[in-house]
Amino acid sequence: MAKKVPMSIDRRKVFYISGFDPRGARHYHNLFVNEAERFNQKIDGDLTVSSRVKESDEEISWQTIYENEQGTTVSDHTMLGWDDIIRQNWLKDPFKLFTKSIHAYIDNITIADWQTALKLSRAPIITLGYPVLVLFVLGLLIFSFSQYLFFFTTNIWLCLAGLAILFFLAYKLFSIVKAPWLLRLFIINNKMAHGPVKDIEDRIDLFAAIIQDTADRDKYDEILLIGHSNGATFLAPIISRLIKKGVPLNKIRIISLGHCIPLVSLSKKALYYKEHLKTAASRDFLWLDIGAVADGTCYAMIGPYKGAIDETDIKTELVLKSPRFHASYDKKKYKTMKLNKYAFHFLYLTCPDTLGNYDYFTMTTGHLGLRSYIKTLK
Q1: Which pLDDT score, from 0 to 100, does residue 114 have?
Q2: pLDDT tens digits, one per residue of 138-147
């Protein structure tokens, strides 16, 4: 067998926590398999992906084997699920969604550290204002069409039927542009910004215990803990728990993809969350944060600690990188991709058209350990 490359990984463990998405492990495993097939067409080697295995209600796992002339790397992937909690908070009733959204928006005006938030990045704030703008535009359209409706007929039943159709079409359009998803995201973060949410805290306790058990068995060369989007808000609390339990962090690497941590950490009431950040920041471990400026849902190139704790207290080896999606697709395609903000937010988990910049599969299945992999990124 050919000699393995320096700083290479024989066995890796990958834990993945999704964002606020009710789709569970089946969806994410299928996405992984489909994108791995695309990755396989672009590499000088072979990546195989196993079927998924249910280890528990919260742990769905699969294995990858990456082989080329440099050797073989086996990676065990586990999705740490909280989609059951998400579904419980996935408001479908339009009236409840509207009323709870109004409450969250009004409440956030008083509890958020807006001065710091505006200094960090205005893009996520603009994105969260997007559903309000859509509602305003749809309201104007309904009002305008209703004027024509009442002008052409005086039949009250026809008018009511016409208004019902207008409201139905407006709601469908509102859903198509993914505005309800943003509202639900905002509502759950508003809950977390007020203090610990029991279901989420219990799940974080469980995740920390699972990771501790993996670290104690000392089976892997490295352990990657990945939080995507809202899932990244779990990272600091998990690390905080591991530190308090005395778990060594020498093999644990943290990765945040398109994180929106400030939606919680910049709340004046989220003192519990700031304590988790302080505890995590007090230790020297590797945290890679990847965020695209064009991804309006995330705080791109802004670390997880920014604005929430004193930066002089940070001992974490924090590395901020852009995924450089613009360099991984041709200009015309990239321009079109940017228009679909929802799909763009999931590019972190896909295989790009051109390898050479960030891609999820080289990072989580390839031979290089994370620290060596980071050196290959621009």
Answers
A1: 79
A2: 566 666 666 6
Q: 281 vs 223, 362, 370, CA distance in Å?
A: 19, 27, 19
Q: What is the DSSP string of 91-103?
A: ---HHHHHHHHHH
Torsion region of 28: left, alpha or beta (phi above 0 gives left; psi -120 to 50 gives alpha): alpha
Cα gap 97→185, rounded to integer Å: 11
pLDDT for the residue 6: 44
Helix residue spans in the chain (DSSP H): 25-40, 83-88, 94-111, 114-120, 123-152, 156-176, 179-194, 198-217, 235-244, 262-265, 271-281, 331-339, 341-344, 360-365, 370-375
Q: Taking the complete model, does pTM exceed 0.85, yes or no?
A: yes
Angle among Cα 53, 59, 62 to the nearest 5 degrees reads 35
Handedness of CA 354, 357, 359, 363 (dihedral sign): positive
What distances in angstroms separate CA 305 from CA 223, 268, 276, one per listed residue?
A: 22, 15, 10
Q: Which regions in the chain score pLDDT beneath 70?
A: 1-7, 122-124, 126-127, 129-178
* Beta strands at 59-68 and 46-49: parallel, antiparallel or unpaired: antiparallel
Q: Please, what is the Cα angle at 100 between 174 and 231, to 5 degrees?
A: 80
DSSP state of 180: H
| pLDDT for res 367 | 96
